[in-house]
Design goal:
- With 293 residues, the protein is mainly β.
- It has one domain: Sandwich (Jelly Rolls), CATH 2.60.120.10.
- Helices cover 6% and strands 51% of the residues.
- Strands 1, 13, 14, 17, 18, 19, 20, 21, 22 and 23 form a ten-stranded antiparallel β-sheet that branches. It has a seven-stranded antiparallel β-sheet with strand order 2-3-4-11-6-9-12.
- A hairpin with a 4-residue loop joins β7 and β8.
Length: 293
């Protein structure tokens, strides 16, 4: 049974982190979260002049996962448990905050010096109660290891960040069953993409226009799908979209900024732990000064 579109949400723009602009389809008024997902932000596309690039300085997380997927630009990250790295075009960082972490994501020093184009996504994935206080962990996957497949006619290509599509499976391990697929379509593409029947499912179009289950979505629009085991895509021109699906957790969600727990008491404990320094702090002493290579 093919899924239908039951709701279309047009994303809104807002300022986040150190001042960068995002396009956010959810959460929004009337659509708080898309269980098992909590938030989707499209960062850019934006062109920065030298010295203008901004990011998200030191900030805490507890009780969920953040997934950063870079299409253009470079992001340097560091955290309070000693992880450091850099991700560039096509790379993915899947961070499980678990019991708590202080994290920073900033444009690379090279980008801050020379400027450049930034485009990417950050997805927040909820954790079930049993995992909310697990040890933090990282899965940092370079573009070369993200499975990719193309339809026999060559008109549609998928990058499989989580789950399965066109016979290939993701290398990332998720705490609950999730699919995260980046689709690229050429004019004339038409195909049905299977979705597990027990998943909730959402399609976010971010480039061009795409027919989703017979309804045309423009860039910046999210389709909420009903039940079924597949979704039909058709493209009259070049288009790109994210397909997100997952088994809903169906637990209470209590959120206070970067803390997502099941009860208000747990939120208050997270705030107290952060204020008392129990989530740690990022050691910036070993970093070169901004503006230095």
């Amino acid at each position: 049974m093919s899924r239908k579109v039951v709701h279309v949400i047009t994303s809104h723009r807002q300022r986040e982190g150190g001042g960068f602009i995002v396009r956010r389809p959810f959460p929004t008024r009337g659509f708080d979260h898309a269980d098992p997902f909590l938030m989707l932000d499209e960062m850019g596309p934006i062109d920065y002049a030298p010295g203008e690039a901004v990011g998200a300085p030191d900030h805490p997380h507890r009780g969920f996962e953040t997934v950063t997927y870079v299409l253009e630009g470079e992001v340097e990250h560091a955290d309070s448990v000693g992880h450091r790295g850099k991700i560039g075009p096509g790379d993915v960082q899947w961070m499980t905050a678990g019991r708590g972490i202080v994290h920073a994501e900033m444009p690379s020093r090279a980008m801050q010096q020379r400027g450049g184009r930034v485009h990417g996504f950050q997805l927040w994935v909820n954790l079930p109660a049993r995992d909310k206080l697990m040890a933090p962990r990282y899965q940092e996957i370079p573009k070369a290891k993200i499975p990719t497949a193309t339809t026999p006619d060559g008109l549609a290509t998928v990058h499989v960040i989580a789950g399965q599509a066109l016979g290939v499976s993701a290398v990332i391990e998720t705490r609950t069953p999730i699919a995260y697929q980046h689709w690229r379509f050429e004019a004339g593409a038409a195909l049905d993409v299977p979705i597990p029947r027990d998943h909730t499912a959402y399609v976010y179009v971010f480039d061009g226009a795409l027919s989703v289950a017979g309804r045309v979505l423009e860039a910046g629009q999210l389709a909420v799908l009903d039940e079924g085991d597949a979704v039909a895509f058709a493209a009259s021109g070049k288009a790109q979209a994210l397909l997100l699906s997952g088994v809903p957790i169906r637990e209470p969600v209590v959120q206070y900024g970067p803390f997502v727990m099941n009860t208000q008491d747990e939120i208050e404990q997270a705030i107290l732990d952060y204020r008392q320094g129990k989530l740690g702090a990022i050691d910036h002493r070993a970093e070169p000064a901004r503006g230095q290579p």
